[in-house]
Amino acid sequence: MSYSTSNHSHLTDIELVQHYKATANKVFVGELYKRYTHLVLGMCINYFKDRDVAKDMVLQIFEKLFDELKKREVENFKAWLTFVVRNYCISELRKMQAQANRNADYQYEVKSQTSEDEKETLIEEEQKLEALGKAMNRLNPLQKKCIELFYLKNMTYTQIVEMTGYSVNEVKSYIQNGKRNLKMIITSLK
To answer: Which residues contact 68 (CB under 8 A, 6 or more apart)?
Structure first.
C-alpha cells in the first residue's frame, strides 16, 4: 500500500490514525492537528483561562499524540482526543497547583524564618540597650553626662563645654574614659 504525503484531507480521522500507525509518518497526525486545533485550543482556554498557556498546551498535547496513537486503539478520534485533552489539562493544572503550593510553602517558611530572625535581632538589640542602660548608671556622673550629651543628644565638644562649663580637655577625657568604662562594665555584665 502506498501512502502519498501530498494531501490527506480526503481521509477520515480513523484512516489518518491507521496510516500513522502503519508508517509513523507525522504528516498524518499533522492533518489531524489541522482538523482539531480549534477544538483543543478551546478546551485548553477553558481550563487554563490564559490564551498563551493554552497555545503551549495544544502543542504539548499534539506532541503527546505521536506516542499515544501508536499505543491505543482509537475508534472515534474526536471523542478520544477530547478525553486525552481533558485528562492532560487536569494533570497539568494539578502540577501547576502543586508547584504554586510548594512556592507558597517556601515563601511562608522564608517569611517565618525572617520573622524569627527579626525577633531574635530585636531581642538582642533590646538586651544590648538594657545592658547599656545599666552600664550608664554605673558610670561616674561626669562621664555619664558627657557621654549622654555627645552620643545621645549629638552635641559637639564646644556645645558640651558651653552647657557644662567643663574645659574641652575635660569633656574629651570624660567621654574617652566613659567609653572605656562602659565597655568594661558591659563585658562584666555578660
So the answer is: 84
Q: Is the pTM of this model over 0.85?
A: no
Q: Which three cell numbers stand for residue 53?
A: 498557556
Residue 155 three-state SS? coil
Question: Does 126 map to a domain?
Answer: no
Query: Does residue 8 fall inside a structural domain?
Result: no
Residue 154 phi, psi (nearest 5)? 55, 40
Instruction: Write down which residue in 51, 76, 101 finishes a domain.
Output: 101
DSSP 55-102: HHHHHHHHHHHHHHHHHS--S-HHHHHHHHHHHHHHHHHHHHHHHHHH
- Please write the tens of the pLDDT for every residue from 53-88: 999 999 999 899 989 998 889 899 999 999 999 999
Residue 63: other Cβ atoms inside 10 A: 11
CATH of residue 152: 1.10.10.10
Q: State the Cα torsion 36-42-46-48 to the nearest 10°.
A: 80
All residues at 6 or more sequence positions from 55 whose CB lies less than 8 Å from its CB, including other chains: 41, 44
- 69 and 16 in contact (C-beta within 8 Å)? no
> How far is Cα 71 from Cα 118, in angstroms, rounded to an integer?
57
